[in-house]
Amino acid sequence: MPPAPPSIAPPSAKQSLRLLGIDPGLRITGFGVIDTLGSKLSYVASGCIRTDEKMTLPERIGTIARGIAEIVATYSPAQSAIEEIFLNKNPWSTLLLGQARGAAIGALVSAGLPVAEYGTMQIKQAVVGHGRATKEQVQQMVRRLLHLPGDPSQDAADALACAIAHAHGGQGLGALSSAGRRKSGRLTTLATRTTRA
After folding, report:
1. Is 151 annotated as a binding residue?
2. pTM, whole model, 2 decimals?
3. Catalytic center residues
4. Which InterPro entries has this protein been placed in (predicted)?
5. pLDDT digits (tens, 9 = 90+) for 64-119
């Protein structure tokens, strides 16, 4: 009886990539987790980290950082993306938003995640198809793209939209014209040097 031919292992299936999107805010920080496999997007989870306005600023920053760390530990994303700051008419509001965003980035980088940054118009362009889309339009497109039964909250939808934009490489349904504010997602990497006092 001739020996059986050597078995050939089937090619390994492509692995999905888990992405975490963050919509930073001092009062409410939205998060959205999706899996991407090729052009297929799958919803995993979304929600909000809320801070108590009666807390001190450091306490609120700590709440955001711990919340992000818990989300990373729970869902184990491979990459993350966060929305850039838009200039507010109120400089104090912009400053507070920047501190909340810094807390989120710090937590992501501390967890060893690469962090891509996308502008608001770039995210809207990637998800809706034009950079002037309303929040309601973003919610509706996020629901359609992820096959959700209803619209997610605005903060969660913005975070999911950020993750979707990252999954699409910041391009999505069409690239912003060169006359616009188009920027490729910048990558924030973990610094390896320690500064001594």
Report:
1. no
2. 0.79
3. 23, 83, 155
4. RNaseH-like_sf (IPR012337), RNaseH_sf (IPR036397), X-over_junc_endoDNase_Mg_BS (IPR020563), X-over_junc_endoDNase_RuvC (IPR002176)
5. 999 999 999 999 999 999 999 776 677 888 888 899 999 999 999 999 999 999 99
Alpha carbon distance 146, 61 (integer Å)? 30
CB atoms within 10 A of CB 103: 23
Establish whether 52 is an annotated binding residue. Answer: no
Would you say 83 is a known binding-site residue? Answer: yes
Mapped onto helix, strand or coil, the DSSP state of residue 18 is: strand
CA–CA–CA angle 19, 24, 28 (5° rounding): 115
Helix segments in the chain, DSSP class H: 57-75, 91-110, 120-127, 135-146, 154-167
Domain ranges of the chain: 17-186
What does the block give as tokens for 76? 């184990």
CATH topology of domain 17-186: Nucleotidyltransferase; domain 5 (3.30.420)
- Determine the 3-state secondary structure of 83 from DSSP: strand
- Other residues' Cβ atoms within 10 Å of the Cβ of residue 96: 18
